[in-house]
Specification:
By secondary structure, this protein is an alpha/beta fold. It has 21 helices and 15 strands. A hairpin with a 2-residue loop joins strand 1 and strand 2. It binds adenosine-5'-diphosphate (ADP), magnesium ion and zinc ion (ZN). Adenosine-5'-diphosphate binds next to helix 7, helix 12 and helix 14.
């Protein structure tokens, strides 16, 4: 029977599913054909008689055969006629008296009820089995694709063997001080005896602090590469799982693996994902889990014996949110700050990323470095890659200076969107708006130097006036802040002056201007006498300017109003100042705009030529 095929689910569950499915079909066929057997067909129209008549006929030996099928009784008489009848289930053959040993009538009993039951239930059973097999199969798939659900505790650190880490210090351009500090770490890993013999403690943790893309990961790899040791890397976010306790067990697993492979480096990227201050408001994974993970990291680091030559390097761009316990001596007590690259470093980084590219002759990377103030290493790498893409698209044999220039603009300002067609009126307003920025910025002594004006749409902006910040400016004066606000308002002022109408195009300018004014009042003590030299708002966010410094309020309603008043007044004053400049130079405003509408872009040299009515001369 088909039922014999059902074996318990084995490893090849899909194969089993097919087999089961086959048997399911077979069973259905069997159950459909079973009730009427070949021999029974002749009884279909047989006349019905009562049970007592049959019993009488039996004792009178009138029948040759009585076949009992469940409750049906089929009778064949001696003459070959057929009859049928029904009996009660409880009536057995002996009760009916059909078992007389002296009677030669053949009595055949076939109880098919039990069989029929089986036939009825089997498809359901098989179906259930099928579903179970299916489920097992699905779970396997999940387990394979996302090992988190099944292999909770295993750390997912990516291991690079000593031989695999190809990065060396020479691949990290600039960053002289960080490299100097890390040379020491390399030495610890290579010659630990030199230090332990004299009683010096080898540092356990190094924290690399720097904004995204400044090369923290690169630097950590370079340390491993220089020291020739394995490199275990894991991102902080990988510890934070949906299940409480998983992170901690991953940490245990990671550290025990590392200890077996000592000397080696454990690199924890984005450690702020686990290392945030405990007890604070948390998001992502819940903080119970994060706390446990963090505690486990601390425990593991404390548990290193002095001989264990494992150095933990962690990276973060949010050192301010890290739990103090992480920064204690014996843990991440070495902090290395990685700044955005300066002019010289940028040129070197650009050079590193030209190494494996076909470069044209007469490429001047210095001018590119000058144009990329404030960009991080990752941006520079991106620029060189975009330049290569431009060169390929334009079917150049090698990357040209123009390709790199265009790539700089694309990375700094967003991709050009020439397909966006503005109406003539909108184009006119955009042109006046941008020239307004340019003229006001140009006239404000402290404003960053103008670099380029464009009315080609880029990203979400309709036009761009590009000012390049000066190198090496670590502090900002009040005058500069005011000039910046004035320049930002120049666009809106031009719109009002020329069209006596204002558009939504300036909303980003206004946002930035307000942020600067608010910063002056709240952070830098540059407000009016009501505000004094007091900072307002308790910092909870980043130490870096501009990246979500969320402030909690720690001042009175009255001071809040004073701050608002200062911001409003400052913006109004600067708007009037910008408007005044543009009124005074309205002729030039018209002239420059007219040319810009024709050329679409304008360099600072061209601008000065028109504006100052003289031969171009570089501003200092
Ligand atoms: P972070 O980890 O600080 O976010 P990464 O180390 O991932 O930054 O840097 C991203 C990429 O930027 C690197 O792969 C590298 O190509 C490039 N890069 C960053 N800084 C430098 C540098 N100083 N020299 C060479 N390349 C750099
Ligand atoms: Mg990184
Ligand atoms: Zn603007």
């Amino acid at each position: 029977m088909a039922a014999t095929k059902s074996r318990p689910p084995k490893s090849k569950s899909w194969l089993l599913s097919i087999v089961l499915f086959g048997s399911l079909i077979a069973m259905s066929l069997v159950s459909l054909t079973n009730p009427q057997r070949e021999g029974d067909k002749k009884f279909v129209d047989a006349p019905e008689v009562s049970i007592s008549q049959i019993t009488r006929g039996y004792s009178e030996r009138k029948f040759s055969k009585i076949a009992v099928r469940d409750n049906k009784v089929f009778i064949t008489t001696i003459t070959g006629a057929v009859l049928q009848s029904y009996k009660e289930s409880r009536d057995t053959v002996s009760q009916l008296g059909w078992n007389d040993p002296n009677n030669s009538t053949v009595v055949e009993v076939e109880n098919r009820e039990a069989q029929n039951m089986l036939v009825a239930v089997l498809p359901d059973l098989l179906f259930l089995l099928l579903v179970i097999c299916g489920l097992i199969w699905v779970f396997r798939g999940i387990a394979r694709s996302q090992s988190t659900a099944m292999s909770f505790g295993k750390s997912r650190a990516k291991v690079a063997d000593a031989t695999q880490v190809k990065t060396r210090f020479k691949d990290v351009a600039g960053m002289e001080e960080p490299k100097e500090e890390l040379v020491e770490v390399v030495d610890f890993l290579k010659n630990p005896k030199k230090y332990t013999n004299i009683g010096a403690k080898i540092p356990k943790g190094v924290l690399l602090v720097g904004q995204p893309g400044t090369g923290k990961t690169l630097l950590a790899r370079a340390v491993a590469g220089e020291a020739g040791v394995p490199f275990f890397s894991i991102a902080g976010s990988e510890f934070v799982e949906m299940f409480v306790g998983v992170g901690a067990s991953r940490v245990r697993d990671l550290f025990s693996k590392a200890k077996r492979n000592a000397p080696c480096i454990i690199f924890i990227d984005e450690i702020d994902a686990v290392g945030r201050q405990r007890g604070g408001a948390g998001f992502g994974g819940g903080h119970d889990e994060r706390e446990q993970t963090l505690n486990q990291i601390l425990t593991e680091m404390d548990g290193f014996e002095q001989e264990t030559n494992v150095i933990v390097i962690a990276a973060t761009n949010r050192p301010d949110v890290l739990d103090q316990a992480l920064l204690r001596p014996g843990r991440f007590d070495r902090r290395i700050f990685i700044d955005r690259p300066d002019l010289e470093a940028r040129e070197k980084i650009l050079e590193v990323h030209t190494r494996n590219k076909k470069m044209g002759t007469k490429i001047n990377l210095t001018t590119i470095a000058q144009k990329t103030v404030g960009l991080a290493g990752a941006d520079l790498e991106n620029i060189m890659n975009e330049a290569a893409i431009f060169a390929a698209k334009r079917k150049h044999k090698a990357i040209s200076q123009q390709d790199i220039d265009d790539a700089v603009e694309k990375v700094a300002l967003g991709p050009e969107r020439r397909s966006r067609k503005l109406s003539d009126k909108e184009t006119g307003i955009t042109a006046y708006h941008e020239v307004g920025h340019a003229i006001v910025g140009h006239l404000c002594k402290e404003s960053d130097p103008l670099h380029k004006i464009s009315i080609v749409s880029r990203g979400s902006a309709l036009g761009v006036t590009w000012f390049l910040p000066k190198e090496d400016q670590f502090t900002t004066s009040k005058t500069k802040f005011l000039d910046e606000i004035c320049g930002l308002l120049g666009g809106r002022a031009a719109e009002q002056l020329i069209f006596n109408e204002i558009t939504t195009g300036a909303s980003n300018d206004l946002e930035r201007a307000s942020a600067i004014a608010r910063g002056m009042a709240m952070r830098y003590g540059m407000g009016d006498d009501h505000l004094g030299l007091v900072t307002y708002g308790e910092k909870q966010g980043s130490m870096y300017q501009g990246s979500d410094p969320s402030l909690s309020r720690n001042y009175s309603e009255e001071q809040a109003r004073n701050i608002d008043d200062f911001v409003l007044e400052t913006i109004n004053e600067q708007y009037i100042r910008a408007l005044g400049m543009l009124k005074k130079h309205q002729k030039k405003l018209d002239e420059v705009t007219k040319i810009l509408l024709k050329t679409e872009t304008m360099s600072v040299e061209e601008f000065i030529e028109i504006f100052d009515d003289k031969k171009p001369k570089k501003r200092k």
